Every structure is written in C-alpha cells, then in structure tokens.
Amino acid sequence: MMTAVNTIRIQKGRVDEILARFQTPKSVHTFEGFILMEVLKKENSPDYDEIKVCTTWEDHSFFEKWLESRASQKAHAQKSEQKPEDSPILGSELTTFEVAIQHKPAAQEV
Fold first, then answer.
1. Which long-range contacts (CB under 8 A, 24 or more apart) does 86-93 make?
2. Predicted local confidence at residue 50, as pLDDT
C-alpha cells in the first residue's frame, strides 16, 4: 500500500472554505485501487491554516493512474478558475509514502 499526502497551506481563517470542497466524496472514491481518504486539519497554527489530504491506495500504480486521469484534472480545474488574488490557498506540496506497517484494532486483526 501507499499513501499520498497533499499538504495545503491556507490563509488564516479561511480553512472552512477549503474543507467544504471535501465534504462530499468525489470521483477519487470510485477509482480502482483506492482504499481511504482522510482530510486532516492542523491545530494551533499561528500564521496560516493547514490541511493534509491523505489518500491510501493498494499500490503506487493506482495512484499514478488517478493522477493522470481526466477526473483528477477536472477536480483541480476549479482551483485554476479562481483568480489568484481571491484564492485562500497559499501553496501545496504532494508527498508519497509506502505504508510499511499498519495496525488495526485488535478485534479487526486476522
């Protein structure tokens, strides 16, 4: 498995505008190999707000297919439609991780 983490820095006080975009599942949830999405909101950041959009995939090839897909491009087109001076997004960074170890609650362990 692998997890992709998109860290998004947001103007202080405007994080809810960005979080609203993730309230309803989008096309990523229908892609082959998709396992899980979590959107994490950083606590107590004094200068700017920050979220991490984490998606977990069966393996890197599924994530790459999603990145290349038209659905991914469409999902990110909304960002380019907004004038830069109106956007609450200050920047973003995408990183990927191999899931080396994972523990589930004892009742779910097999």
1. 88/10, 88/11, 88/14, 88/15, 88/17, 88/18, 89/8, 89/9, 89/10, 89/11, 89/18, 90/9, 90/10, 90/11, 90/48, 91/8, 91/9, 92/6, 92/7, 92/8, 92/9, 93/6, 93/7
2. 97
Give the model confidence (pLDDT) of 8-47 as tens digits.
999 999 999 999 999 999 889 999 999 999 999 999 989 9
Tokens of 88: 């609450």
Nearest to 55 by CA among 20, 79, 78, 31: 31
Question: Smallest Cα–Cα separation from 96: which of 53, 41, 33?
Answer: 53
Single pTM value for the model? 0.83
- Secondary structure of residue 51 in the 3-state scheme: strand
**Distance (Å, whole) CA 42 – CA 51:** 6
| Residue in this structure with the two tokens 């692998």, named with its chain if needed | 2
Give phi and psi for 16, each to the nearest 5.
-65, -30
